[in-house]
Amino acid sequence: MNDKTIDLLLATLQASPDNWQVRSHVANLLVAANRQSEAQQLVDDGGQFPTNEDELLELGNVLTTFNPNLALDVFNSAIEINKACAAAYLGKATAFHAIGDVESARKNYNVATVIDEVLEDPAFEAALDTTSDTPPSHSRKLVANLNTNAPHGGDTPLDMEDDDEISPDEFIETDRLLEQAGVENIIDFNDIGGMEALKERIRMSIIHPFKNAELFAKFKKRTGGGLLFYGPPGCGKTLISRATAGECGAHFINISIHDVLSKWIGESEQRMHQIFVEARRKAPTIIFIDEIDALGVKRSDAGHTASLVNTLLTEIDGAASNNQNVLVIGATNTPWRIDSAFRRPGRFDHVLFVPPPDQEARESILEIILNDIPQEKLDIRQIAKAAAKFSGADLRAAVERASETVLSRIMNSGKDAVITQKDLLAAIKQTRPTTLEWIEQASNYASYANQSGLYDDLADYIRSSS
C-alpha cells in the first residue's frame, strides 16, 4: 500500500470523521508503513470510541500493535456490550501479552477459548508457556471422570472427588484474603449514602430472614436462595452486595468469569462446585457473581459453557447439599440475556433494580472522590444536583476532567491553583452520563417485555426521572 493510497483514504476520512471502520483501517495501514505516531494521532483525533462491537474489535486489534494499554480499554468496551465476546477476551490476552502481563494474558486467553474453541492458537499458547501434551494433574483426573462416571447433560454437576479439590482461595477473593492483605472489607449500609428504598427492599427480602431464621422458618420462609441486581454499569452493585454481607454478618466470596472458566474439560464445573463447598463450610456466606450474564447466559446460546450453566443452577438449588444460610447474589447490566431458569423459585427469587445514585448518594460519592484534592469551598449539593443520572464512574470521570483543567491552568501560568465550583460544573456539563445509553436500551424491555413484572422497578424509575 503506497503513500498515495493512504492519503486518499485520509481525505475520505476528513469527509466522514465519525467512520471508525475507515479510521481503524487507515491506522492499520499507517502501522504497516512504520508510521506509528501518525496512527496514534489518527486514533486520538477520532474522539469518543465507537459503540459498535465489530468496530471496537477492529480498533482494539490495531491499537494492540502500538498502544496495548489503550487497546485494553477498547476491548473492555466491547465486553460491556457483549459479556460473552470471545474475540474481545482474545484481544485482551494479546494486549496483556504485549505489555508483559503473562498471567492476565493467560486468564483472558482461557476465557476466549472456553467461549469459542475455534480461537485456540497453539502458537500463542506456546508464547504464554501453557502448551503441554497433557493438562494439569487435577484436569487429567477430571477428563477420566468425564469418560467414565460423569453425567452427560442434565442439571447435575460433575462427579467430584475429595482428593481432587482446587482450593477456592487460589482464584477467588474472600473476606479472609482481604484481611490477610490488611484491607478493611467489612462495610454495611451506613457506608453507603442514599439509596434508602433499595436498602429497605434488601432488608426485607434478604437481611431480616438471615438475622431471624427461626421466625421466618415458622412461616416456611427459608434463608438463602438468590438475589439478582441489575442496572447500569458503575452504579455500585458490587458495593451494595458487600454491604449486604456486612449487614447479615456473613462471609463474602466474590467471583467473576475469569475465576471460574478454564480451558480444561470439566475444570470450570469443578471450580464452581468448590466455591459452593467453601461457602457452605463457612456459612452464613454470600457468594457474589459479577457479570453473571457471562456465566448464566441462556443455555441455547451458551455453547461449550452450557454444562457450567447447569452446574451453577444445580449448586444454587442445593439439590445435593444444604444451602441454608448460603445466599447467591448475581449482578448484571443485561438481565434480559440471563437464562429464565435462573428465575425459578429457590434460585434468584428477588430481582432488584440498582438505579444511578440518587442526590444523597452522589453527594457522598463526590465527597469521597474530592477528598484530599486541593479545592476551594465547594457546594457539593449543587454539584451533585447538576450531575443527575451520573454513575459513580461518571462522577469520577467528571472530577478527573476538572482536575485536568486545573493542572493545565497551573502549567500555563506557573501559579498554584485549586479546583473550583466553576471547574466542576463545567466538567459535568461536558460529561455525558454513561447511564443514558443503558437506560435507553433497557426502556425497550421495560415497555415491551415486562409481562411478568420483572422490570417494574426499572419502569418506575424511567417514569419518575423523565
Walk me through the topology.
Layout: H1 3-15, H2 20-32, H3 36-45, H4 53-64, H5 68-81, H6 86-98, H7 102-115, H8 122-127, H9 137-147, E1 173-174, H10 175-180, H11 196-211, H12 213-218, E2 225-230, H13 237-248, E3 251-255, H14 257-260, H15 267-281, E4 285-289, H16 292-295, H17 299-302, H18 306-317, E5 326-332, E6 348-353, H19 359-370, H20 380-386, H21 392-413, H22 421-430, H23 435-448, H24 456-465
Parallel strand pairs: 2-5, 2-6, 3-4, 4-5
Antiparallel strand pairs: 1-3
Helix pairs in contact: 1-2, 2-3, 2-4, 4-5, 4-6, 5-6, 6-7, 15-18, 19-20, 19-21, 21-22, 23-24
Would you summarize the structure shown here?
This protein is of the alpha/beta class and 466 residues long. 56% of the residues lie in helices and 7% in strands. The chain has helices at residues 3-15, 20-32, 36-45, 53-64, 68-81, 86-98, 102-115, 122-127, 137-147, 175-180, 196-211, 213-218, 237-248, 257-260, 267-281, 292-295, 299-302, 306-317, 359-370, 380-386, 392-413, 421-430, 435-448, 456-465, and strands at residues 173-174, 225-230, 251-255, 285-289, 326-332, 348-353.
Structural class: alpha/beta
Evaluate the radius of gyration. Answer: 24 Å
In DSSP terms (H or I, runs of 4 or more residues), the helix count works out at 24
The CATH C-level class name of the largest domain: Alpha Beta
Number of domains: 4
Explain what the structure shows.
With 466 residues, the protein is of the alpha/beta class. It folds into four domains: 3-127, Tetratricopeptide repeat domain (Serine Threonine Protein Phosphatase 5, Tetratricopeptide repeat, Alpha Horseshoe), CATH 1.25.40.10; 153-352, Rossmann fold (3-Layer(aba) Sandwich); 359-432, Helicase, Ruva Protein, domain 3; 436-465, no CATH class. 56% of the residues lie in helices and 7% in strands. It has 24 helices and six strands. It has a six-stranded mixed beta sheet with strand order 1-3-4-5-2-6. Helix 2 (20-32) runs parallel beside helix 4 and helix 21 (392-413) packs across helix 22 (421-430). The chain is globular, with a radius of gyration of 24 Å.
